[in-house]
Amino acid sequence: MPDLTRRSLLAVAGGLVAGPALVHAAPPRPADLSPAEALALLFAGNARFAAGTPTSPHRDLARLKEVAPLQKPFAAFLGCADSRVPVEIVFDQGFGDLFVTRIAGNVSTPEITGSLEFGAEILGAKVLFVLGHTNCGAVTAAVKGVEVPGQISSLFYHIRPAVRVAKGDVPAAVRENVRNQMDVLRESSPVLARLVRAGKLVVAGGVYDLATGRVTPVES
Ligand SMILES: [Zn+2]
Fold first, then answer.
1. Which string of DSSP letters, residue by residue, matches the chain?
2. How far apart are the CA of 190 and the centre of ligand 1, in A?
3. Ligand 1 center to 83 CA (angstroms)
4. In order of start, what are the domains of the chain with their CATH numbers?
5. What is the Å distance from ligand 1's center to 55 Cα?
6. Ligand 1 mean position to 81 CA, how many Å?
7. Each residue of 30-75: pLDDT tens digit?
8. What is the layout of strands, in order, in the sheet containing 75-79?
9. 203 CA to middle of ligand 1, Å?
């Protein structure tokens, strides 16, 4: 199997962490990454994807067999269910790398929070990333206050605080919703809050642009 993880990690180590000495050091396994290194690994993957030069690592049967007995994803995600937001592709990762929850409007319901607690506390993810995206149908519908069938409106409850702040501006609502969900995860979960305080987890967020493939960070 091509040693793509090693290559990716070296790229991060060489480009973002230190000079040539680190490039030749033994690459850390994902489990040994710091939260900052894990976050850098994600943005490096997105940069490859958005540049049209993905390495598509860990996508083969050999990798699946490698992680089948035990998973140690280095990042956990709250993303939108939108068909244009496949998280592993957007961040150029593969089997065993990301623990992903997806729900329309990327909102933190109790079940989602519980899943992410599992990803961070039990599986050891170092980053918890809330990923919003441009042209999000759920956020747009919440902003416009359209009538929707079935239980779709149950999502609006979670998006409404962002809508109030954004005052009709959908891109602003998307960003604000990411910020709110980061706050909800940090503040509503003692498990996640403890990991953050201990420096074992970082909560981050960003907006993925459907036009470019690029993820722009959202500061909390
Ligand atoms: Zn969406």
1. ---HHHHHHHHHIIIII-SHHHHTSPPPPGGG--HHHHHHHHHHHHHHHHTT----TT-SHHHHHHHSS----SEEEEE---TT--HHHHTT--TTTEEEEE-TT----HHHHHHHHIIIIIT--SEEEEEEETT-HHHHHHHHT---STTGGGGHHHHHHHHHHHTT-HHHHHHHHHHHHHHHHHHH-HHHHHHHHTTS-EEEEEEE-TTT-PEEE---
2. 27
3. 9
4. 4-217 (3.40.1050.10)
5. 26
6. 6
7. 558 999 999 999 999 999 999 999 999 999 999 999 999 999 999 9
8. 98-102, 75-79, 127-133, 202-208, 215-217
9. 20
For residue 216, the one-letter residue type is T
